[in-house]
């Protein structure tokens, strides 16, 4: 009996030890699993799905400038200036690519140390320290930089619409180059690179919301365009000579390319293939269509005719206005933004510039400046936390602060740059060259009959 009891107790003890060991092993495995999960969260890795989408979005945004904007603007000028206008978009694409690679990316997205609230530093000049395995979020840093490069390309290209048909090519290159470094890259840093607008300085910690470029791209470009138009003065014969578009078919094609490319612009700004990117895409479509119809009907009421130029310009106005809001509002909010943008931008392009007497050749300020302003402010009113939690606490006051800061810096810096260039090499071609047309006088080429 004693031996039998001892055996029973021994077996029970062994089973207890085995059970405790198994439980400990399970707990240890769970702990190791948690450590692995934490490690995976800490170490960023490339998501191939997000990367594939961002490669596509980058190509779409580049498509917006060449050939989209080139055709949109090229069709709206007179025939004698069409090549010069298209040349501006193409040359700006090349120039901004090099400037962004060399220094623009570093100013916008690297750490500026003690000056980080205002601009990045120079640690990433010529993309130093970035390799094929470098990661930004869940995508390669090179892809992130390329995507941002396409924004740095189209923003100065938009400005060119304000002074179309009357700026020297050499002066244009100097202005765009300096402007991209002094104006665009710092503002991109303020909003997207961890600068003071992103930090919520002066706004109680609430960041200025700009999902895809209402302040950085459109208000920035629109105000710079207005300043350029005022400094250069009106085109020769403005108000007395017929300056109707020479080929609206080109402009319709360009507008279509802009519309499609804008899906990369807005949905791509999520930097991931997810639900928020889908919401931004839906908002983009709804706002563009609403603004196109709103502009068309407003023009129809005023002039008794709906024009092709009107409906395509209205669509672009809607795309502009929804850009800052695309990742913060729901589709109903996008509908409101589109309708407001269509009506107000029509007034700005058709009546405000006539009333004030400035020559914004292709309505860069009327569409991008005013449209960007509408979108930025309405983001503060219509932001929906159910779409994006970052919209919680958004206000029109915070958004207005971002708008004012952007306008002031852009206007002052653009004016100074233009005046320096004017003093050194001049801004405008001669009256004879302008009368002949910039295609022949500046480039020695022309469109055949």
Please give a structural write-up.
The protein has 449 residues and is mainly α. It folds into 2 domains: 1-43; 49-443, Ammonium transporter AmtB like domains (Ammonium transporter fold), CATH 1.10.3430.10. Helix content is 70%, strand content 1%. It has 15 helices and 2 strands. It has helices at 2-42, 48-76, 82-109, 141-159, 169-192, 196-199, 214-232, 248-267, 275-303, 308-322, 331-356, 364-382, 396-424, 431-436, 438-443; strands at residues 135-136, 139-140. It has a two-stranded antiparallel sheet. Helix 9 (275-303) crosses helix 11. The longest helix is centred in the N-terminal third of the chain and has 41 residues, at 2-42. 50% of the residues are buried. Residues 1-22 have low confidence and may be disordered.
Name its key features:
disordered N terminus, 2 domains, two-stranded antiparallel ribbon, mainly alpha, globular, 449 residues, 1% strand, 2 strands
Short description:
It contains 15 helices and two strands. It is mainly alpha-helical and 449 residues long. A two-stranded antiparallel ribbon has the order 1-2.
What is the fourth-level CATH superfamily of the largest domain?
A: Ammonium transporter AmtB like domains
Number of domains: 2
- What is the element string, with H for helices and E for strands? HHHEEHHHHHHHHHHHH
Q: Largest beta sheet, briefly?
A: 2 strands, antiparallel
């Amino acid at each position: 009996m004693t031996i039998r009891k001892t055996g029973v107790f021994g077996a029970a003890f062994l089973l207890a030890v085995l059970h405790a060991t198994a439980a400990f092993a399970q707990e240890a495995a769970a702990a190791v699993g948690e450590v692995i999960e934490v490690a995976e969260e800490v170490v960023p890795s490339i998501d191939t799905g997000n990367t594939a989408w961002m490669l596509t979005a980058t190509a779409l945004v580049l498509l917006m400038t060449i050939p989209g904007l080139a055709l949109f603007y090229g069709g709206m000028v007179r025939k004698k200036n069409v090549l010069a206008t298209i040349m501006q978009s193409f040359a700006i694409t090349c120039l901004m690519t090099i400037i962004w690679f060399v220094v623009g990316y570093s100013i916008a997205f690297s750490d500026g140390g003690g000056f980080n609230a205002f601009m990045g530093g120079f640690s990433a000049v010529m993309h130093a320290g970035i390799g094929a395995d470098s990661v930004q979020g869940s995508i390669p840093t090179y892809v992130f930089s390329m995507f941002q490069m396409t924004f740095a390309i189209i923003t100065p290209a938009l400005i060119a619409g304000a002074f179309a048909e009357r700026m020297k090519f050499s002066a244009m290159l100097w202005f765009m180059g300096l402007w991209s470094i002094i104006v665009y890259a710092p503002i991109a840093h303020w909003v997207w690179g961890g600068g003071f607008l992103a930090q919520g300085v002066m706004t109680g910690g609430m960041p200025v919301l700009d999902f895809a470029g209402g302040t950085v791209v459109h208000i920035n470009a629109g105000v710079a365009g207005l300043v350029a138009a005022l400094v250069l003065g009106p085109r020769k014969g403005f108000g007395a000579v017929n300056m109707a578009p020479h080929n609206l078919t080109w402009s319709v094609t360009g507008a279509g390319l802009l519309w499609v490319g804008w899906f990369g612009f807005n949905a791509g700004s999520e930097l991931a293939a997810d639900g928020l990117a889908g919401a931004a895409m839906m908002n983009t479509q709804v706002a563009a269509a609403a603004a196109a119809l709103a502009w068309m009907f407003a023009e129809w009421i005023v002039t008794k005719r709906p024009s092709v130029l009107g409906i395509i310009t209205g669509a672009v106005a809607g795309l502009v206005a929804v850009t800052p809001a695309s990742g913060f509002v729901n589709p109903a909010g996008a509908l409101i933004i589109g309708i407001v943008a269509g009506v107000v931008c029509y007034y700005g392009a058709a009546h405000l510039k006539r009333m004030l007497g400035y020559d914004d050749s292709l309505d860069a300020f009327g569409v991008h400046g005013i449209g960007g302003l509408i979108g930025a402010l309405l983001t503060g009113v219509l932001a929906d936390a159910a779409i994006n939690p970052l919209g919680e606490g958004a206000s029109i006051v915070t958004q207005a602060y971002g708008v004012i800061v952007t306008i002031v810096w852009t206007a002052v810096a653009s004016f100074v740059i233009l005046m320096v260039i004017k003093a050194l090499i001049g801004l405008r071609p001669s009256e004879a060259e302008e009368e002949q047309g910039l295609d022949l006088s500046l480039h020695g080429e022309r469109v055949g009959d």
